[in-house]
Amino acid sequence: MSPEPFLGDVAHTPVRLHILSVLVENKAGVLARIAGLFARRGFNIYSLAVAPAESHARFSRVTIVVDAESAPLEQIMGQLDKLVNVVAITDLAPRDAVERELLLATITTDTANRTPLLDVLASAGAAIIDVDPGAVTVMLAGTPTSCDELEKSLEDFAEVELHRTGRVALPRLGRAPSA
Amino acid sequence: MQLTGAQALIKSLEQEGVDTIFGLPGGAILPVYDPLIDSTIRHILVRHEQGAGHMAEGYALATGRPGVAMVTSGPGATNIVTPIANAHMDSTPLVVITGQVATSAIGTDAFQECDITGITMGITKHNFLVQSAQEIPRAVAAAFHLATTGRPGPVLIDVPKDVTQSMMDWWYPATVEEFDLPGYRPEVALDDDVVARAVALINESERPVLYVGGGTLKSHASLELLEFAERTGMPVVTTLMARGAFPDSHAQHLGMPGMHGMYAAVTAIQRSDLLISLGARFDDRVTGKIPAFAPNAKVIHVDIDKAEFNKVRVADVSVQSNVAAALRAFDASGAMPRNLDVWWKTIREWQADFPLVYDEPSADGPLRPQHVIEAIAASAAPGTIVAAGVGQHQMWASQFWKFEEPGTWVNSGGAGTMGFGVPAAIGAKVGRPERTVWCIDGDGCFQMTAQELVTARSEGIPIKVAILNNAYLGMVRQWQEMFYDERYSEVYLNADLPDYVKWAEAMGCVGLRARNLEEMHAVIAEANAINDVPVIIDFRTDSSEKVFPMVASGASNDDIMVHPSQRGGAQ
Fold first, then answer.
1. Model ipTM value
2. Does the pLDDT at position B71 exceed 50?
3. Closest CA in chain B for residue A24
4. B492: number of Cβ within 10 Å
């Protein structure tokens, strides 16, 4: 379960990664069922994001980026579909999807690094969402690639903490996803 | 109508037509055992929860109806984990009810608490932790629906004690919609294009084999299979899980394929140009070395579970369907292979050259285990059900018993659970009391679950148990002899310890022993004459006897080892 860093942009996403958008019943233990299935079948999860779907509490949407080289995608989807709480699975090839991810980072600041930091944030389109005299917390909601780029740029600064959500995705308009 | 959750649970089981529960009470499930007294449902009180699970499996395999087991929380629940795993591997419909500590105590390491839904997540088709008494009917109805439809399997319902003790307004779901299973779609319509592609492959085949798996029995497709096989004239092989799906006496039946399969069955698959898999899953015990398995065959894979497609062997056509519907569709399309005369001529030569054989037994003993099985079969009533444990005796039973109809072979296939035989035979007898039930067991297996004969005796379940006592964990011994330079490590059991006759008698059963041919015939006749209590026979068999044919683990099926007396010639 140690994926290689993923640094390409959407158009150059390695084909082995697939995005599965999985609608599940919002019931206790569903995430454990999915995680358990991936673990016991030896499927690799690259990233995973979960939230209630379409604002009603009955379903949640789980966006799983899977490594389709750890097992054939057909196997992963077939086994996943057998979980009784899984309602629907949409396979999104990265080039057929719009993907976004949220990045939060807290960076230690001082008079020397403030200006270059502001330049990095401005060019990445990141926003400052919290400040104190010695640090700022910044946010970027963007493509996984833009989050990768910001993460790389922030390596030059004394970073306190950086969190990413894992991506969520929807089909690119005008492209039919394979169900 | 106001009921307690416990009453609602029992009433829900009655609603599902349950006639028998195999179980053992304890603290957390105690409330449910009270309304059971007033129910028409028969409860079989087991001596160990593993016995309850295997009995429920035996009941399900013999009747085709779901088996039901009920146990308490904690160790009661963990003791039934092995049968659940076994049922999951063999797609056996099972509903297991476990007591759980009160909802307020869950997560506090309370007395006899364990996370049984977590433990069984990977070995059930689905499981439920019921949160309120009002939800009990839905959970039970959904559990039976899940266990018995699509690819069957075990479903567990975990019921906290406060849930069974609280009150509910009685209701019962009337439709599938009320089961609240939005993600469950067990049946799919057959795709005409897929059927047409399958039929095209059949029509151009010259060396087809019908590779029949357990799914054929699960979908009650024996009649469709018989019709299809006879109309097309194709050879049939039945896997360990499918024994009885096609009559062994039928001229087109080549027997069991796989590691200990018949030479002709194994070799026909290897040389086939088309393999029609009917509810089989290309298990490693059938395929041997996968790249060498049926190397020139195209594959039509019929399965209700689409996750089986291309899991082990890439299929040319995958037909998602139950076996019966697929065979009817193939028939309706007039599927017909080319002339099979040459193919059958070749197969008949294999059958003639390499029949199942064993060495002649000597009159003074030790007995030949294969001969014991044939002798029991020869005097058994038609339709006798045979249960087995796991090991050499299981393979010999599958090879030498002749199965003619579904539900007559009860065994542990995928999981290979030693100790399955005795409790599974008891469950089968409960489900089919009019049938004679023989358990062909090994001495190692027998010692694992023999205590359930106390259950059988006290509940009036007269099964017959043939222990093929070779004083060893025989299959392991066979591997150590063949692949570990005869270095025998921890496989000797001692034929005289325990004394099986005394043990049988201590359990209220009849105990018999046979050391030579004369005794063998006498005790079989004696056992056949006893129909009121269980009979246990200690057959003293030859320790050095091995199961043949054999494909070594990981070897190609082309390298099948036949019986030593058949070697050196045409191989």
1. 0.91
2. yes
3. B183
4. 12
Residues 133-152 of A with CB under 8 A from B: none
DSSP string covering B103-140, please? Answer: GGGTTTT-TT---HHHHTGGGSSEEEE--SGGGHHHHH
Q: Which pLDDT does position A159 carry in this prediction?
A: 76
The answer to whether residue B332 scores a pLDDT higher than 60 is yes
Considering only CB atoms, which chain A residues are within 8 Å of B181?
Answer: 84
Q: A69, A61, A119, A129: which is closest to A90 by C-alpha?
A: A61
What CATH number has the domain bearing residue B245?
A: 3.40.50.1220
Same domain as B155, residue B11: yes
A 10 A CB-CB count for B397 gives 29
Please give the CATH number for the structural domain made up of A10-96.
3.30.70.260
Confidence of residue B187 (pLDDT cuts 50, 70, 90): confident
Average confidence (pLDDT) over B353-374: 96
Q: Partners of A103 in the beta sheet?
A: A140, A164
- C-alpha torsion angle, residues B476, B477, B480, B486 (rounded to 10): 170
Tokens found for residue B102: 């009160």
- Write down the pTM of the prediction: 0.95
Q: Name the residue in chain B with its Cα closest to that of A79.
A: B307
Report the domain count for chain B: 3
Give me the DSSP letters along B142-197: HHHHHHHSSS--EEEEEEEHHHHHSEEE-----SGGGG--TT-----PPPHHHHHH
